[in-house]
Design a protein that fits this description.
Elements: E1 12-16, E2 28-34, E3 43-50, E4 53-59, H1 74-83, E5 88-97, E6 107-109, E7 112-115, H2 143-155, E8 160-162, E9 165-168, H3 177-186, E10 190-192, H4 198-204, E11 208-218, H5 229-255
Parallel strand pairs: 1-4, 1-5, 5-11, 6-8, 7-9, 9-10
Antiparallel strand pairs: 2-3, 3-4, 5-10, 6-11
Helix pairs in contact: 2-5
This protein binds hypoxanthine.
Amino acid sequence: MPTSNRPEPVRLAVIGGSGLYRLGLGPVTTTHQVNTPFADEPVDVFEEQTAAGPVWFLPRHGEHHTVAPHRINYRANVWALHSLGCNSIVAINATGGISAGMIPGRLVIPDQIIDYSYGREHTFITDEHSLAHHIDFTNPFDPLLMECLAGSVKQARLEYRLGGVYGCTQGPRLETAAEIRRMYRDGCDIVGMTGMPEAALCRELGLRYAMLALVVNRGAGLGGGEISLDEIRQVLVQGVDGIRIVLRHCCQMLLKPA
Ligand code: HPA
């Protein structure tokens, strides 16, 4: 069989978080209802025709934000995207800010994760154990996608930080002030509830994965009072426009042939 050195063409999926319930970069051409071994109900994935090519979109909390972080069927979602042939995933995540500069409105492309979540179905591996099951996860995010996101945010002239540690808590409650202080000591820059096990499941299936996080509040105890959900909603509404611009650039970079 002749082999080719050409890289595999990118088939890009976006997983939308709080505030991003439709991609909105072009018309939806197909709504895929994907059956998976992990759920009785199919997973809805929306295929959009963007100017640069097709992109698949999955809102992880559902179209109407009815699925809480600890109840998301991460395995079904990742499996569905993989079975549609997607090989690259950009995840959009609303987060709290912990370290200096992580203020509401800031975009962050993290390069590391600490997982504080528990009790979630976090692996596809259920058969007899073998050494091969210990996937490497030293760097949980894909450098090519991170670079593409950074280039796209720059092009959009938005404030951002490339690199940082994303701490994933269980939710759905927000953290206590002491928990956030501990996360700071651990080295976390931002905190969210949905990055894991999503990132690890993508790695298990060999999918490229990167995160574009939007800081929507200061972490508990850091903002001089209680966390205001109204303020979070306002930042989300404003931030989502910028995220769409970034995603549009990202599609151009990844999907258009050079
Ligand atoms: N903590 C956890 N998840 C979040 C936060 C937070 O402060 N803000 C948005 N998602």
